[in-house]
Every structure is written in structure tokens, then in C-alpha cells.
């Protein structure tokens, strides 16, 4: 399937999956527009705040709920427009967790420094989450 066909399908999914007045629908549309129009280098490291801004959501409790629902949807199996990335950052060292390390961290909350093999005592302070565009988006 080529990218334009896939994107057209993704544009239809929110109307099939959410009520007409659900704020996730326009948020997803704005994110899709951004992802397909942006240069690939601009969609490889997206923060929650960046996605919130692109989706046109404010810094309110209601919009935060919409943001989390939107992110769950666009990273989910149905659309998979964005991929979640876990990155360990310590001083000037950055390391992307692989699938096994990510699953272990999610399950246990602990992480071992890949340079030393020693457990990082405050790993939650050093594991950062961001998003990157999936292959379907990058196949422009």
C-alpha cells in the first residue's frame, strides 16, 4: 500500500472510531496533517508538548485527557502513526532502549546502565519518553 492510500485510510479511522463531537477526531486530523507535511527530520523526536501544540490542545485537565487518548490512538495498532521511544540520558550520554530493555523497564521500573551493567538507582529520572513517526509516515 502506498503512503497516500494509507494516509487516506488513517484520515477515515477517527470518524469510524470516535463520536462526531469527540475532541480526539480533530486532534488526530491535525497531527496527521503535520506528520505528512513536515520534513522527516522534524518528526523523529516529538515530545508530549509538541504533540499537544500540533493537536491544538491547551494546558487544561480536559485537554490533557484528550491528549493522552489521542496519543494512545495514534500509537496504537489501528493507526500506528507514531512510535514510542524510551531513551536513557545520563550527563552527556544518551542510549535508546531496545524492545527487550523497554519491556523490562516497563515491567520492573529498573534499568541498568549499558556501559557498566550496574542498575541505575534513580532510573525514572533518566529514562525519557518521546515519539517518532512510523514507517508509514516516513515513506514519502
What features would you describe in this structure?
This protein has helices at 3-17, 24-37, 48-54, 61-75, 99-108, 135-138; strands spanning 82-90, 93-96, 127-133. The protein has 140 residues and is an alpha+beta fold. The protein has 2 domains: 3-83 and 132-139, no CATH class; 84-130, no CATH class. A 3-stranded antiparallel beta sheet has the order 2-1-3. The mean pLDDT is 92.
Question: Brief description of this entry?
Answer:
With 140 residues, the chain is an alpha+beta fold.
Strand order of the largest sheet: 2-1-3
Q: How much strand content do the residues show?
A: 5-15%
Count of spatially separate domains: 2
What is the count of β-strands? Answer: 3
Q: What's the tally of helices?
A: 6
> What is the element string, with H for helices and E for strands?
HHHHEEHEH
The overall pLDDT average reads 92
Amino acid at each position: 500500500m502506498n503512503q497516500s492510500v494509507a494516509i487516506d485510510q488513517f484520515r477515515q479511522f477517527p470518524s469510524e472510531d470516535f463520536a462526531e463531537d469527540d475532541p480526539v477526531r480533530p486532534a488526530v486530523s491535525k497531527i496527521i496533517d503535520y506528520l505528512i507535511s513536515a520534513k522527516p527530520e522534524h518528526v523523529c523526536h516529538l515530545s508530549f508538548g509538541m504533540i499537544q501544540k500540533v493537536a491544538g490542545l491547551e494546558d487544561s485537565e480536559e485537554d490533557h485527557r484528550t491528549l493522552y487518548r489521542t496519543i494512545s490512538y495514534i500509537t496504537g495498532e489501528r493507526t500506528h502513526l507514531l512510535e514510542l521511544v524510551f531513551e536513557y540520558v545520563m550527563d552527556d550520554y544518551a542510549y535508546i532502549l531496545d524492545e527487550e530493555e523497554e519491556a523490562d523497564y516497563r515491567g520492573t521500573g529498573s534499568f541498568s546502565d549499558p556501559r557498566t551493567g550496574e542498575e541505575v538507582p534513580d532510573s525514572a529520572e533518566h529514562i525519557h519518553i518521546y515519539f517518532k513517526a512510523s514507517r508509514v509516515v516516513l515513506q514519502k
